[in-house]
Amino acid sequence: MASNKTLVPEAKAALDQFKMEAASEVGVNLTQGYNGDLTARQAGSVGGQMVKKMIEKYENDIKSGK
């Protein structure tokens, strides 16, 4: 069962900012608050961009020995 609960509540603002940056990079206009008017394709592209950036950061951390 999927959960949309933030595991670390203190990270919510950073996650929201990360989501806005990812949306901007793929050309999706997000607003603060409700974004239920997005298509599944738009929402998926934002989520996909977020995952892509997280994987890139992880790989870079491994390469640099962090």
Description of the molecule:
- The protein is mainly α and about 70 residues long.
- It has 2 helices and no strands.
- The protein is globular and about 40 Å long.
Summarize the structure.
The chain is mainly α and 66 residues long.
On the 0 to 100 scale, the average pLDDT is 91
Q: What is the count of β-strands?
A: 0
Strand content: under 5%
Structural class: mainly alpha
Broad shape: globular
pLDDT < 50 runs, ≥5 residues:
none
Give the secondary structure arrangement, pairings included.
Layout (H helix, E strand, L loop, with lengths): L11 H14 L14 H25 L2
Helix pairs in contact: 1-2
Key words describing this protein structure:
single chain; 66 residues; mainly alpha; 59% helix
